[in-house]
Structure formats: C-alpha cells, structure tokens
Automatic annotation (TrEMBL):
Domain SsuA/THI5-like as annotated: residue spans: 58-244
Pfam families the record matches: NMT1
InterPro entries: SsuA/THI5
UniProt-recorded name of the protein: SsuA/THI5-like domain-containing protein
Length: 323
C-alpha cells in the first residue's frame, strides 16, 4: 500500500514541471489588430518546439515592469522607443508591406499632385502617417502644408463603421486614405469605380520587425530560446511565401476577416523573412520624421547602426536546432 507521501510526490513533480515550462516560456507581443503579427503566432504554434505565448501589444511592452521577451512592430514605433531605450535591438524582419494611397475620383483626383489642398485620412504618429508624408513629398512634390491629414480608425471587416477611414472616404469627409491593410483595400472596395490607387514601394514600405533587448540577449538561456524562435520564423516565412493557400484561411479566421479581402491584399506583403538589408537606410530619414513629431533630437547614425543586431539570425542559421 502506497503512503500519502508516494501519492502526493507525482503531483508535486508534475506541477514543478509545468511551472518550469511556464516560467521559461517566451512571451511575444504583437498587435492583434494587424495582419503583420500573424507569422509570430503561427511560428509559435507550428514550428517553435519550446513554449511560447503571443500576447497583444508591441515594442513598448519590452520596457518597464514587463516579462515580454520579443515584440513585433513597424519601424516607426521602434524608433520612438529607441530614443530612450538604447538597449532595444532589431533582430528579424517579419514582413515588408507596400503601403498604398486610395483617393476618390469624385474629389477631382487623378494624380498625386491633385492631393494638394485635400484631406487625407491616416493614423497620426504611425508608419501610415510617415508613409503619407514621405510618399507625397518624394513622388508628388507636395509639402506638409499642401494638404491636411485627418485622423481615423482602421477597419478589418466590412461594413466599416463611422469613424473608420473607409467610411470617412466613402461618405466624403476625407478625399483620400493612406494606410496599412486591409483598411486600404476596404476603402478601395467601398469606392468601387471611383477609386484611384497610388503605390511606390521604392519610396516607402513598412518594415515590420521583431525586437528584443540586450538584456534578453545576454541571458544565455533566453538567447538560446530566441535563436530557436528565429528558426521557427524562417520556416514560417517559407509557409507564408510558398503555401499561402493554406495560411490565408487561418489568418482570416484569426483576424475575423473575409478570406477574399485577405487574398486581395496578400501580394502587397513580402513574407520572405530574414533581416532587411537596407534597414539602416530606411531608419535614417524615418528617425528625422519621428524626432520632429516627438519634438526630440534625432538619433545619431552610429546609434541607429547599433540598433540593428544581425548576430542572432546569423546564429540561428549557422547551427541546427537542438531543442
């Protein structure tokens, strides 16, 4: 007959194992409202062999009293954090997105120059707002004072309600929208034949990266987990690039999106993964804009170079997984 001690011991062991797994799990933050975070989720579900939890958030969650190890965000928000947190590091490019502007022909718009004097809907202080400014300056020859930006909300599923950018465009309170997807696609569909679309990814495309901190990377155990997670992201990149037919239904369900809409915007997303080779060149002019918006001094080019850490990805690709 087993004693009480023999009966309790297995339970204690099981609880100890479960607690150890939870305590050492990677915690990854990404905004659940954007398509871009989905590789982070699927990598944790399909390919990462450790324990990982993806929570709603972004790069700001890496700081303060936080147990977040990794975070996904557009480069604009990372620059905002890096100004005061020089221990932030970019370690992987999850996806690059060629933003677009859609305008209404009814507003007399057929070229970018026609946006002079118009109201353009976007989300202030984000990659979308930077895209509008940079695109219109570089390709349209327009100064900031030549048009008015109007704040509005994103929309992932039609019908888009009042206050969202597609609704505002269709109902004429703004003349154009510059935004990430699927808000832009839904705005196009809302206008129908009255839509005119502008796009030039050589001027700007969102670079949605994965970030961590030097503190996390200096911890041998955490770094090992992060390296393994980057291998999982590489596998996920192949899935998103070469087998979109299997991924789109999953992402659509996660985002509560229409599959046809997601399929329509899939081509403006580059899921190849890795680390954008021109990331430094992207960050330099972008920080000048963020610094102006945030009313701070610009970050030195030396510091911007330090922000990019390619060693983690190099480590992930140089050695096989041991997990």
């Amino acid at each position: 007959m087993y004693s009480l001690q023999h009966q309790v011991l297995p339970v204690v062991v099981i609880l100890s194992v479960l607690w150890t797994q939870y305590a050492t799990a990677l915690r990854i933050a990404g905004a659940f409202s954007v398509i871009e975070y989905n590789p982070l989720l699927i990598a944790s579900q399909d390919y990462y062999k450790g324990t990982a939890q993806v929570v709603n958030g972004g790069v700001a969650n890496l700081f303060g009293n936080s147990d977040i190890d990794l975070a996904g965000n557009a480069e604009t928000q990372a620059l905002r954090q890096y100004a005061t947190h020089k221990n932030l590091r970019v370690i992987y490019t999850v996806v690059e997105v060629a933003y677009r502007i859609v305008a209404s022909k009814k507003a007399g718009i057929s070229s970018l120059a026609d946006l002079k004097g118009k109201k353009i809907g976007t989300v202030p202080s984000t990659s979308a707002a930077y895209f509008v400014q940079r695109y219109l300056a570089s390709a349209g020859g327009l100064r900031d004072s030549d048009y008015t930006t109007v704040s509005g909300g994103n929309c992932n599923t039609a019908p888009c309600g009042a206050g969202t950018l597609p609704y505002m465009l269709v109902h004429g309170s703004i003349d154009a929208v510059g935004m990430w997807e699927p808000t832009l696609e839904l705005a196009i569909e809302g206008l129908g034949s009255d839509a005119v679309v502008f796009q030039n990814k050589s001027v700007y495309r969102e670079v949605y990266n994965l970030y961590t901190t030097t503190d996390k990377l200096k911890n041998a155990s955490t770094r090992k987990d992060i390296v393994a997670y980057l291998r999982a992201l590489d596998q996920t990149a192949q899935l998103f690039t070469n087998h979109s037919e299997t991924v789109i239904p999953r992402v659509a369900k996660t985002m509560n999106m229409n599959e046809a809409v997601l399929k329509a915007v899939w081509p403006v997303h580059d899921w190849k993964g890795g680390l954008a080779p021109d990331l430094f060149d992207v960050l330099v002019p972008e920080d000048q804009w963020v610094a102006k918006v945030d009313r701070r001094s610009g970050i030195s080019q030396a510091d911007l170079k330090t922000m990019i850490d390619s060693s983690v990805l190099e480590e992930a690709r140089a050695s096989p997984s041991t997990m």
